[in-house]
Specification:
By secondary structure, this protein is of the alpha/beta class. The protein has helices at 13-43, 51-75, 129-134; strands at residues 9-12, 77-80, 94-100, 105-112, 123-125, 142-147, 150-161. The chain is built from 3 helices and 7 strands. The longest helix has 31 residues, at 13-43.
Length: 164
C-alpha cells in the first residue's frame, strides 16, 4: 500500500540509468562476490574470531541496505524527459548559464532532482536554496539568493535543454 503524499523521486534519464545499472550490479555481481567470501570464510572453521567472515557479513549488510535504498528510489520515480523540457524558464532537466554578479564570472548548472545532485559535476538540486530560487526564472532576470556563505546574485544568461 502506497503512503499518501509519498514524495516522488525526480530523475533525468541519465540518473535513472545510473541507478538501474548500480542496482543490477549489486544484485548480480556484488551479492555473488560476498556469498563467495562468506563461503570461503566459513570453510576456515570457527566463525567466532574470523575477521574475514565478519567483514563479509558487514559488506553483505551494506549491499542489502543499498539495494533496498535503490529499490525505494526507483519504485516511486518521475522521469524528466530532457528533450521535452520547456526552456522559456528554468525547470528541472535544463542547463542554465548564469553570470555571478559579485564575482563577474559565468557558471553553468544542470537542475536535477535531489537524489541526482552533485555540485562537483555542476548538478544542483531543485530543492537546494540556489535551485529553488532559480526554478521559474527567465532569461535576463537577476536572482538574489541567501546562502550559508552569504548573499549571491545571478543573472540568467541562457536556458538550454541539458540533452543539447
Amino acid at each position: 500500500m502506497e503512503e499518501q503524499g509519498e514524495k516522488k523521486t525526480i530523475l533525468t534519464y541519465e540518473g535513472l540509468r545510473q541507478y538501474e545499472e548500480e542496482l543490477h550490479h549489486l544484485k548480480v555481481v556484488r551479492r555473488q562476490d560476498v556469498a563467495q567470501k562468506l563461503k570461503e570464510a566459513r570453510a576456515q572453521g570457527d566463525l567466532s574470531e574470523n575477521a574475514e567472515y565478519d567483514a563479509a557479513k558487514d559488506e553483505q549488510r551494506d549491499i542489502e541496505a543499498r539495494i533496498e535504498e535503490l529499490e525505494n528510489i526507483l519504485k516511486n520515480v518521475e522521469v524528466v524527459v530532457e528533450d521535452e523540457v520547456e526552456v522559456d524558464k528554468i525547470n528541472i532537466g535544463c542547463k542554465v548559464l548564469l553570470r555571478d554578479m559579485l564575482d563577474d564570472e559565468d557558471l553553468e548548472y544542470k537542475i536535477v532532482g535531489s537524489t541526482e545532485a552533485d555540485s562537483l559535476q555542476g548538478k544542483i538540486s531543485n530543492e537546494s536554496p540556489v535551485g529553488k530560487a532559480l526554478i521559474g526564472a527567465k532569461v535576463g532576470e537577476t536572482i538574489t539568493i541567501e546562502t550559508p556563505a552569504g548573499e549571491v546574485r545571478y543573472k540568467v544568461l541562457e536556458i538550454l535543454r541539458s540533452a543539447s
